[in-house]
Amino acid sequence: MASPKKKLQGLVAATITPMTEHGEINFSVIGQYVDYLVEKQGVKNVFVNGTTGEGLSLSISERRQVAEEWVTKGRNKLDQVVIHVGALSLKESQELAKHAAEIGADGIAVIAPFFLKPRNKDDLTEFLKEVAATAPGLPLYYYHIPSLTGVKIRAEELLDGIQEKVPTFRGLKFSDTDLLDFGQCVDQHRQRHFALLFGVDEQLLSALVMGATGAVGSSVFRDSSTLWSNWVLECRRPKPS
Ligand SMILES: CC(=O)N[C@@H]([C@@H](O)[C@H](O)[C@H](O)CO)[C@@H](O)CC(=O)C(=O)O
Hints:
The protein is an alpha/beta fold.
Protein backbone atom coordinates (compact mmCIF):
# COMPACT_ATOMS: atom_id res chain seq x y z
CA MET A 1 0.00 0.00 0.00
CA ALA A 2 1.05 3.60 -0.52
CA SER A 3 3.05 5.01 2.35
CA PRO A 4 0.99 7.40 4.46
CA LYS A 5 4.16 8.77 6.06
CA LYS A 6 5.71 10.98 3.46
CA LYS A 7 3.32 13.80 2.69
CA LEU A 8 4.21 15.70 -0.44
CA GLN A 9 4.28 19.36 0.57
CA GLY A 10 6.15 22.60 0.08
CA LEU A 11 7.78 23.43 -3.19
CA VAL A 12 7.97 20.84 -5.92
CA ALA A 13 10.00 21.68 -9.03
CA ALA A 14 8.38 20.84 -12.35
CA THR A 15 11.54 19.86 -14.16
CA ILE A 16 12.42 20.49 -17.77
CA THR A 17 13.78 17.62 -19.83
CA PRO A 18 17.25 18.66 -20.98
CA MET A 19 17.92 17.97 -24.66
CA THR A 20 21.00 18.01 -26.81
CA GLU A 21 21.13 20.13 -29.95
CA HIS A 22 20.31 16.94 -31.87
CA GLY A 23 17.02 16.43 -30.06
CA GLU A 24 18.25 13.61 -27.83
CA ILE A 25 17.75 13.67 -24.08
CA ASN A 26 20.81 15.05 -22.35
CA PHE A 27 20.99 12.66 -19.42
CA SER A 28 24.43 13.89 -18.47
CA VAL A 29 23.14 17.09 -16.86
CA ILE A 30 20.39 15.63 -14.68
CA GLY A 31 22.82 15.06 -11.81
CA GLN A 32 23.84 18.73 -11.93
CA TYR A 33 20.17 19.69 -12.11
CA VAL A 34 19.52 17.79 -8.87
CA ASP A 35 22.41 19.57 -7.17
CA TYR A 36 21.25 22.95 -8.43
CA LEU A 37 17.75 22.45 -7.04
CA VAL A 38 18.93 21.13 -3.69
CA GLU A 39 21.94 23.37 -3.07
CA LYS A 40 20.99 26.62 -4.76
CA GLN A 41 17.22 26.58 -4.50
CA GLY A 42 16.57 24.55 -1.38
CA VAL A 43 14.03 22.43 -3.26
CA LYS A 44 14.00 18.70 -2.60
CA ASN A 45 10.90 17.51 -4.44
CA VAL A 46 10.59 17.11 -8.18
CA PHE A 47 7.77 16.49 -10.63
CA VAL A 48 9.20 14.71 -13.66
CA ASN A 49 7.79 14.30 -17.19
CA GLY A 50 4.97 16.78 -16.58
CA THR A 51 4.06 19.75 -18.73
CA THR A 52 7.36 21.56 -18.24
CA GLY A 53 9.20 18.32 -18.87
CA GLU A 54 7.19 17.78 -22.08
CA GLY A 55 6.41 14.25 -20.98
CA LEU A 56 3.56 13.89 -23.47
CA SER A 57 5.94 14.73 -26.33
CA LEU A 58 8.44 12.04 -25.33
CA SER A 59 8.27 8.40 -26.31
CA ILE A 60 7.41 5.86 -23.63
CA SER A 61 10.98 4.62 -23.71
CA GLU A 62 12.31 8.17 -23.20
CA ARG A 63 9.88 8.77 -20.35
CA ARG A 64 11.08 5.62 -18.64
CA GLN A 65 14.73 6.60 -19.03
CA VAL A 66 14.16 10.15 -17.77
CA ALA A 67 12.29 8.83 -14.74
CA GLU A 68 15.08 6.39 -13.98
CA GLU A 69 17.74 9.06 -14.23
CA TRP A 70 15.95 11.37 -11.79
CA VAL A 71 15.39 8.58 -9.29
CA THR A 72 19.02 7.44 -9.56
CA LYS A 73 20.60 10.89 -9.39
CA GLY A 74 18.19 12.06 -6.71
CA ARG A 75 18.89 9.15 -4.37
CA ASN A 76 19.95 10.44 -0.91
CA LYS A 77 19.60 14.02 -2.14
CA LEU A 78 15.96 14.56 -3.03
CA ASP A 79 13.05 13.89 -0.70
CA GLN A 80 10.50 12.90 -3.31
CA VAL A 81 10.57 12.15 -7.01
CA VAL A 82 7.06 12.13 -8.44
CA ILE A 83 6.69 10.81 -11.96
CA HIS A 84 3.91 11.98 -14.23
CA VAL A 85 2.55 8.89 -15.98
CA GLY A 86 -0.50 10.34 -17.74
CA ALA A 87 -1.06 9.21 -21.35
CA LEU A 88 -3.83 8.82 -23.90
CA SER A 89 -3.74 5.09 -23.52
CA LEU A 90 -4.61 3.43 -20.23
CA LYS A 91 -2.09 0.69 -20.94
CA GLU A 92 0.73 3.20 -21.41
CA SER A 93 -0.18 4.96 -18.18
CA GLN A 94 -0.21 1.62 -16.41
CA GLU A 95 3.14 0.65 -17.88
CA LEU A 96 4.67 3.93 -16.73
CA ALA A 97 3.09 3.64 -13.29
CA LYS A 98 4.41 0.10 -12.85
CA HIS A 99 7.81 1.23 -14.01
CA ALA A 100 7.80 4.17 -11.55
CA ALA A 101 7.14 1.72 -8.74
CA GLU A 102 9.87 -0.66 -9.90
CA ILE A 103 12.55 2.04 -10.01
CA GLY A 104 11.70 3.37 -6.55
CA ALA A 105 9.91 6.64 -7.35
CA ASP A 106 8.00 8.23 -4.47
CA GLY A 107 4.73 8.90 -6.24
CA ILE A 108 2.89 9.10 -9.52
CA ALA A 109 0.72 11.81 -11.02
CA VAL A 110 -1.86 11.33 -13.74
CA ILE A 111 -3.65 13.74 -16.07
CA ALA A 112 -7.02 12.88 -17.57
CA PRO A 113 -6.81 11.29 -21.02
CA PHE A 114 -7.50 14.17 -23.36
CA PHE A 115 -8.51 12.88 -26.81
CA LEU A 116 -11.32 10.51 -26.00
CA LYS A 117 -12.09 12.18 -22.70
CA PRO A 118 -13.79 10.92 -19.54
CA ARG A 119 -17.38 12.17 -19.73
CA ASN A 120 -17.87 12.53 -16.02
CA LYS A 121 -16.36 12.04 -12.61
CA ASP A 122 -17.07 8.31 -12.58
CA ASP A 123 -15.20 7.74 -15.86
CA LEU A 124 -12.23 9.73 -14.60
CA THR A 125 -12.20 7.97 -11.24
CA GLU A 126 -12.27 4.62 -13.02
CA PHE A 127 -9.28 5.62 -15.16
CA LEU A 128 -7.30 6.72 -12.09
CA LYS A 129 -8.27 3.52 -10.27
CA GLU A 130 -6.98 1.35 -13.12
CA VAL A 131 -3.67 3.22 -13.21
CA ALA A 132 -3.34 3.16 -9.43
CA ALA A 133 -3.88 -0.60 -9.34
CA THR A 134 -0.63 -1.19 -11.21
CA ALA A 135 1.37 0.73 -8.58
CA PRO A 136 -0.38 -0.08 -5.31
CA GLY A 137 2.63 0.98 -3.25
CA LEU A 138 2.80 4.50 -4.63
CA PRO A 139 0.79 7.57 -3.70
CA LEU A 140 -1.22 8.84 -6.66
CA TYR A 141 -1.92 12.51 -7.38
CA TYR A 142 -4.44 13.70 -9.93
CA TYR A 143 -2.99 16.38 -12.21
CA HIS A 144 -5.86 18.76 -12.89
CA ILE A 145 -5.00 20.93 -15.89
CA PRO A 146 -8.25 21.58 -17.81
CA SER A 147 -6.72 24.26 -20.07
CA LEU A 148 -4.58 21.59 -21.71
CA THR A 149 -6.64 18.41 -21.32
CA GLY A 150 -10.05 19.99 -22.00
CA VAL A 151 -11.37 17.84 -19.14
CA LYS A 152 -13.32 20.30 -17.05
CA ILE A 153 -14.62 18.01 -14.31
CA ARG A 154 -14.31 20.14 -11.20
CA ALA A 155 -11.56 19.03 -8.86
CA GLU A 156 -13.77 19.40 -5.83
CA GLU A 157 -16.30 17.03 -7.40
CA LEU A 158 -13.60 14.48 -8.18
CA LEU A 159 -12.23 14.54 -4.63
CA ASP A 160 -15.59 13.68 -3.16
CA GLY A 161 -15.41 9.98 -2.29
CA ILE A 162 -12.31 9.24 -4.36
CA GLN A 163 -10.24 7.62 -1.63
CA GLU A 164 -12.84 4.90 -1.19
CA LYS A 165 -12.41 4.03 -4.87
CA VAL A 166 -8.71 4.77 -5.29
CA PRO A 167 -7.07 3.91 -1.96
CA THR A 168 -3.65 5.24 -2.98
CA PHE A 169 -5.06 8.65 -3.88
CA ARG A 170 -3.19 11.32 -1.92
CA GLY A 171 -4.11 14.64 -3.47
CA LEU A 172 -3.91 16.79 -6.53
CA LYS A 173 -1.86 19.19 -8.49
CA PHE A 174 -4.30 21.96 -9.26
CA SER A 175 -3.25 23.77 -12.45
CA ASP A 176 -6.28 25.91 -13.06
CA THR A 177 -7.19 29.51 -12.36
CA ASP A 178 -10.61 28.64 -10.88
CA LEU A 179 -9.94 29.65 -7.30
CA LEU A 180 -13.53 28.95 -6.32
CA ASP A 181 -12.98 25.28 -7.17
CA PHE A 182 -9.62 25.29 -5.41
CA GLY A 183 -11.11 26.94 -2.32
CA GLN A 184 -13.80 24.28 -2.16
CA CYS A 185 -11.15 21.54 -2.42
CA VAL A 186 -9.43 23.10 0.58
CA ASP A 187 -12.58 23.68 2.62
CA GLN A 188 -14.25 20.36 2.00
CA HIS A 189 -11.25 18.04 2.03
CA ARG A 190 -8.87 19.60 4.54
CA GLN A 191 -9.68 16.96 7.12
CA ARG A 192 -8.65 14.19 4.73
CA HIS A 193 -5.10 15.52 4.66
CA PHE A 194 -4.84 15.47 0.92
CA ALA A 195 -1.87 17.21 -0.66
CA LEU A 196 -3.36 20.24 -2.40
CA LEU A 197 -0.55 21.45 -4.61
CA PHE A 198 -1.10 24.57 -6.63
CA GLY A 199 0.25 24.77 -10.18
CA VAL A 200 -0.38 28.26 -11.56
CA ASP A 201 2.62 30.21 -10.35
CA GLU A 202 1.04 33.60 -11.07
CA GLN A 203 -1.69 32.87 -8.50
CA LEU A 204 0.44 31.08 -5.96
CA LEU A 205 0.20 33.73 -3.29
CA SER A 206 -3.62 33.63 -3.40
CA ALA A 207 -3.59 29.84 -3.30
CA LEU A 208 -1.25 29.79 -0.30
CA VAL A 209 -3.54 32.17 1.56
CA MET A 210 -6.45 29.87 0.74
CA GLY A 211 -4.66 26.83 2.13
CA ALA A 212 -2.54 25.21 -0.58
CA THR A 213 -0.20 22.72 1.05
CA GLY A 214 2.45 23.21 -1.59
CA ALA A 215 3.17 24.20 -5.15
CA VAL A 216 4.34 22.47 -8.28
CA GLY A 217 5.73 24.94 -10.73
CA SER A 218 8.37 26.03 -13.13
CA SER A 219 8.88 29.74 -12.57
CA VAL A 220 8.90 29.78 -8.77
CA PHE A 221 12.34 28.24 -8.86
CA ARG A 222 14.23 31.31 -9.90
CA ASP A 223 16.54 32.88 -7.36
CA SER A 224 14.71 35.10 -4.92
CA SER A 225 11.22 33.89 -5.82
CA THR A 226 12.11 30.40 -4.61
CA LEU A 227 13.42 31.71 -1.33
CA TRP A 228 10.35 33.86 -0.98
CA SER A 229 7.95 30.99 -1.70
CA ASN A 230 9.80 28.70 0.71
CA TRP A 231 9.50 31.37 3.36
CA VAL A 232 5.75 31.83 2.80
CA LEU A 233 5.18 28.08 2.95
CA GLU A 234 7.25 27.79 6.11
CA CYS A 235 5.23 30.55 7.76
CA ARG A 236 2.01 28.81 6.91
CA ARG A 237 3.06 25.35 8.10
CA PRO A 238 1.12 24.43 11.26
CA LYS A 239 3.36 24.73 14.31
CA PRO A 240 3.30 21.93 16.90
CA SER A 241 1.28 23.10 19.92
C1 LIG B 1 1.05 24.96 -17.92
C2 LIG B 1 2.35 25.00 -17.20
O1 LIG B 1 3.37 24.82 -17.79
N1 LIG B 1 2.28 25.24 -15.89
C3 LIG B 1 3.45 25.29 -15.07
C4 LIG B 1 3.51 26.59 -14.35
O2 LIG B 1 4.64 26.61 -13.54
C5 LIG B 1 3.62 27.69 -15.39
O3 LIG B 1 4.80 27.54 -16.15
C6 LIG B 1 3.67 29.03 -14.70
O4 LIG B 1 2.48 29.21 -14.00
C7 LIG B 1 3.96 30.15 -15.66
O5 LIG B 1 2.84 30.36 -16.49
C8 LIG B 1 3.45 24.18 -14.08
O6 LIG B 1 2.23 24.14 -13.34
C9 LIG B 1 3.63 22.93 -14.89
C10 LIG B 1 3.94 21.77 -14.12
O7 LIG B 1 3.89 21.73 -12.93
C11 LIG B 1 4.37 20.64 -14.89
O8 LIG B 1 5.39 20.74 -15.51
O9 LIG B 1 3.68 19.64 -14.91
